[in-house]
Amino acid sequence: MTTPRVEADLGWALGRVARAHLRTAQDVVSGLPGGPRGYQVLAGLAEGPPRTQLALARTLGVDRTVMTYLLDELEGAGLVERRPDPSDRRARQVLLTEVGGARLCDLERRLRGAEDELLAPLDPAERDQLRSLLQRLAVGADGASACQVAADIQQMQGDGTC
């Protein structure tokens, strides 16, 4: 039996998988301030030294004014804290709180479980290979940030939220 033409199309397959992943991921992060963007902020803060608000906004591809409101919400929930940057008192560093780190761990665990369900037709080695290949493609595609990619997918779906 041959595969129908549409099912052999890369764009069709990527679109179907991306939409399924997006629905699942939105369910997981729905209670988090900022939703997917809030998750990206927490994940971005978990790696490396403290970052300034501006550096974090640039890394995630988020407008700096939007980042301010997003950090206000995350700080209000006790997930992040802002403090003056010791090297530049005009700038503010953003740090993950202990509560924020625990929330991030929970979200990562739940997202991994949701991904495992989505990738259930593949064996574990194929899942790892797919993740690795997609990460290489995503990084090399057009230099867009993770948040911009998510925003683009959501815009194509018409809901316009990230």
How many strand units? 3
- Terminus-to-terminus distance: 40 Å
Biggest sheet character: 3 strands, antiparallel
Helical content class: 55-70%
Give me the CATH fold name: Arc Repressor Mutant, subunit A
Counting helices, strands and paired strands, the structural category is mainly alpha
Radius of gyration: 18 Å
The CATH class is identified as: Mainly Alpha
CATH superfamily: Winged helix-like DNA-binding domain superfamily/Winged helix DNA-binding domain
Low-confidence sequence ranges: 153-162
**What count of structural domains?**
1
In the CATH hierarchy, the architecture is Orthogonal Bundle
Q: If helices are DSSP runs of H or I spanning 4 or more residues, what is the number of helices?
A: 7
**How much of the residues is beta strand, in percent?**
5-15%
Mean model confidence by pLDDT: 85
Strand order in the largest sheet: 1-3-2
Order of helices and strands: HHEHHEEHHH
Any overview of this molecule?
The chain has one domain: Arc Repressor Mutant, subunit A, CATH 1.10.10. The radius of gyration is 18 Å and the shape is elongated. With 162 residues, it is mainly α. The protein is 64% helix and 10% strand. Strands 1-3-2 form a 3-stranded antiparallel sheet. Mean pLDDT is 85; it is low at 153-162. Pfam families: MarR_2. InterPro entries: HTH_MarR-typ, MarR/SlyA-like, WH-like_DNA-bd_sf, WH_DNA-bd_sf. GO terms for molecular function: DNA binding; DNA-binding transcription factor activity. Residues 7-139 form the HTH marR-type domain.
